[in-house]
């Protein structure tokens, strides 16, 4: 019983020490994340204006999914987004280069029931002065959806899967931009 109590006390002290170190790291002046300012700065990458994504695929209306979800993710998760083009320090452009549907499973009568949809986009990030930060980086993601007998339901399922894919791509783009803060240029 004493050993268990001692173990709990040691674990509690260890967690206090590690959380204190994390707080200390965040409050350092040379930290790349400014939690006190108006914008969080990732190696001074902030105030990104997102230009509407170009859609080079057969599916219409995809640019809205990808542009809106990326703006939402950058605004809510990282504070790197600006909606005002005049305040922008960086521009992010993108092209949806491919959408692929793949059959993943069949029913007993050889009808496809599960699909995987994959989207690939190319993104570029550059300063408003024209200096390119990253150019034509390929990012892709996938999601599964089910195709029911009713085509209207199948279409709704496919649209929901595309929405999921666009959110995943937005998260990957944000992580890629955040990783640029680790590279000193």
Please write out the topology.
Layout: H1 2-26, E1 48-50, E2 54-55, H2 62-78, E3 90-106, E4 112-127, E5 132-146, H3 151-179
Parallel strand pairs: 1-3, 2-3
Antiparallel strand pairs: 3-4, 4-5
Provide keyphrases for this structure.
five-stranded mixed sheet; alpha/beta; 29% strand; Double Stranded RNA Binding Domain; 38% helix; 185 residues
Low-confidence stretches: 13-42
CATH classification, class level of the largest domain: Alpha Beta
- Overall structural class, as computed from helix and strand content, comes to alpha/beta
Which descriptor suits the 3D outline? globular
Helices and strands, in order, run as HEEHEEEH
- Per CATH, the superfamily of the largest domain is Lipoprotein like domain
Helix count, per DSSP? 3
Question: Percent of residues in helical segments?
Answer: 25-40%
Strand segment tally:
5
Write down the domain tally.
2
The biggest beta sheet reads: 5 strands, mixed
The overall pLDDT average reads 75
SS strand fraction: 25-35%
CATH topology of the largest domain: Double Stranded RNA Binding Domain
Structure description:
The protein has 185 residues and is α/β, with parallel strands linked by helices. The chain has 2 domains: 1-31; 40-182, Lipoprotein like domain (Double Stranded RNA Binding Domain). The protein is built from 3 helices and 5 strands; from the N terminus they run αββαβββα. The chain has helices at residues 2-26, 62-78, 151-179, and strands spanning 48-50, 54-55, 90-106, 112-127, 132-146. Strands 1, 2, 3, 4 and 5 form a 5-stranded mixed sheet that branches. Strand 3 (90-106) and strand 4 (112-127) form a beta hairpin. Helix 2 packs across helix 3. The radius of gyration is 22 Å and the shape is globular. The chain starts with a helix and ends in a 6-residue tail after the last helix. The model is unreliable at 13-42 (pLDDT under 50).
